[in-house]
Amino acid sequence: MTWLHFSAPQAKVVREAMALLVPGPTDLPGEREPGAREAGAVHYADRLLGAFRVDPPLIYAVGSGTAHVPLSPEQRHGWLRRVKELQDAYGEGTALLDRLADGDFAAASAEARHRALRDPRARAFRGLLFDHAIEGTYGDPVYRGRPASDSTVLATPAVPPSPTGRPTPPGTGAQGAPVPYGDETAALLRDFTAAARHVVLGGEDG
To answer: For the chain, how are helix, strand and coil distributed in percent, rounded to 5?
Structure first.
């Protein structure tokens, strides 16, 4: 597997942590719907963090296609700063989870991984991971590098370009990441994410 931003060990940490936060059949016996692991949510995070490794950057997709559009100078400036912040957060966060799981989060027992994720020192990174796991699992599969017809998509179909011919911009998730929907669906996803955070993490800042 080739990653845009993650090293192979970092990708393993992110995959296992997201799978605990948004579990599917592999991680939670009896669960019938795909979770973060089955949906490949780790690819969503990797493509966001590595968005500027390609041109145009992997920020705004056009409708239900896989093409992305160039950014304006203002958009490019803002997203470069945000992506750098996310890169730093993931670099520090994955290293922290490894330390909290006795050196290797991905290889640790499920109990040890749960303990590491629930550690107060991992609170901020846990929230970021949860938001990206939700967005990566339930969002348009285009943002995971897959066609819109991908069978693991759990949400509504991708929103086509607006009548003006301009791409419908993503919404903004709780952590500032692109949410690949039009305005109405983006609002629904934000509401869903907020409710899910309250249940799983104990509140918006859980």
So the answer is: 55, 5, 45
User: Residue 22 sits in which domain range?
Assistant: 8-201
Q: What is this structure's pTM?
A: 0.75
Interatomic CA distance for residues 117 and 100, integer angstroms: 8
Where residue 139 falls among pLDDT bands split at 50, 70, 90?
confident
pLDDT grade, residue 51 (50/70/90)? Answer: very high
Burial (0-12, 13-18, 19+ Cβ within 10 Å), 40: buried
User: Per the domain annotation, does 206 fall within a domain?
Assistant: no
Is residue 2 a part of any domain in this protein?
no
Cα angle 42, 47, 49 (rounded to 5 degrees) comes to 95
Q: Is residue 3 part of a domain?
A: no
Per the structure, the count of domains in the chain is 1
Q: Roughly what angle, to the nearest 10 degrees, separates helices 41-49 and 73-100?
A: 130
Give the type of residue at 201.
L
Per the domain annotation, does 175 fall within a domain? yes
Distance CA 17, CA 108 (A): 11
Residues 67 and 151: their CA atoms lie apart, in Å, by 19
